[in-house]
Amino acid sequence: MTSQGGELDLNKQVCFALYRASRALTQLYRPLLDELDLTYPQYLVLLVLWERGPTTVRELGQALDLDSGTLSPMLKRLATRGVIERKRSDSDERSVVVHLTEQGDELREQAAAVPERAAGSTSLDPSELLALRDSLTTLTDAVNARRAHERGTP
After folding, report:
1. Which distant-in-sequence residues (6+ apart) come within 8 Å of 154 by Cβ?
2. Contact 140, 63 (CB under 8 A)
3. Nearby residues of 68 by Cβ (< 8 Å), 6 or more positions away
């Protein structure tokens, strides 16, 4: 039996619209990042490091909402490639700090045009993209706040 006009119609689902948008953007970025020999998640790691400088693995995981099981192999590949270095913190041996290498810094210059090239591949103007980003951030914050409340964490 089909649901015509029902609440369970696929195209009425916010989650499906977000899923499709995420896949479309990842596919849009793929050829741009292939030029830099980066995957999309690696690019996100580098964005954090370019913005913040040396960062602990824990802080990277928090910034990207990734667990260490996902992040560690990615960092290992970036380190093998010579883009980052991982070192134990001087102040806390349990903590690993990720630093960009000279090659990682140079990659920043090569990646500088990626956001503009990606934005230019959409039919949205800059103000529409900013409004979309802000709406998605608001949605994410609201969902995370609700989940934290349900778990009883601040």
Report:
1. 148
2. no
3. 57, 58, 61
Which phi and psi (to 5°) does residue 72 adopt? -60, -50
Residue 55 forms beta bridges with which residues? Answer: 98
pLDDT in tens, 33-42: 999 999 999 9
Q: How confident is the model at residue 54 (pLDDT cuts 50, 70, 90)?
A: very high
How far, in Å, CA of 20 to CA of 144, rounded?
Answer: 21
Residue type, 154: P
Q: How far is CA 104 from the centre of its chain?
A: 17
Q: How far apart are CA 81 and CA 83, in angstroms?
A: 6
Whether 46 contacts 111, CB under 8 Å: yes
For 13-126, where are the E strands, in sequence order? 55-56, 84-88, 96-100
Task: Please say whether the beta carbons of 32 and 118 come within 8 A.
Answer: yes
Task: Quick: pLDDT tens for 55-101.
Answer: 999 999 999 999 989 999 999 999 999 999 999 988 887 899 999 99
Interacting residues of 11 by C-beta distance below 8 A, sequence separation 6+: 17
